[in-house]
Amino acid sequence: MTLAPVIAVVGPSGVGKDSVIEALEARAKGIQRLRRVVTRPEGEAGEDFRRVTDDAFRQMEGEGAFALSWHAHGLLYGVPKEIAQQRQVAEAVLVNLSRAVLLQAQEIFGDLIVISLTADASVLEQRLSLRGRESDSEQARRLGQAKTPLPKGLVRVIEVDNSGALQDTVAKILSRLQLESA
Question: What InterPro entries does the annotation carry (predicted)?
Fold first, then answer.
């Protein structure tokens, strides 16, 4: 049985990864989003994720509950092993990943398409400020990381600027995905 590709959506904080994932899932019926497990504190909004404590995460990790896990921005993130079942029934599975784990994800999942989102610095700054999850110093640190390049060795990368309207970004991505599968 051929497994559906994993589509990793990556980019700097504030680039709109969660909005793009939600819009792609709504527009392309065969694409399913994977809910990550995150140790984000109570009260912090954002993506649709499963919230766990650090201790619960480490226990899950020790029990082999994750296909992929990593640490970033003081939090722990995990891609549940259930992604394998999703890949059997979906046309593609969307997941918000860190740029730092892309090569590992490519090795684990095999068929990985990376959607690398970018946006103008002023757009990123405005979005981070509006979401209000980080302190001013944390926002500045995240903005400083915005230009971090993708690792060398990725096989399939689609780069899209998300400074403008969400529907334009989604249309560009869907067009590029169709071209790539042809």
Answer: GK/Ca_channel_bsu, P-loop_NTPase, PhnN
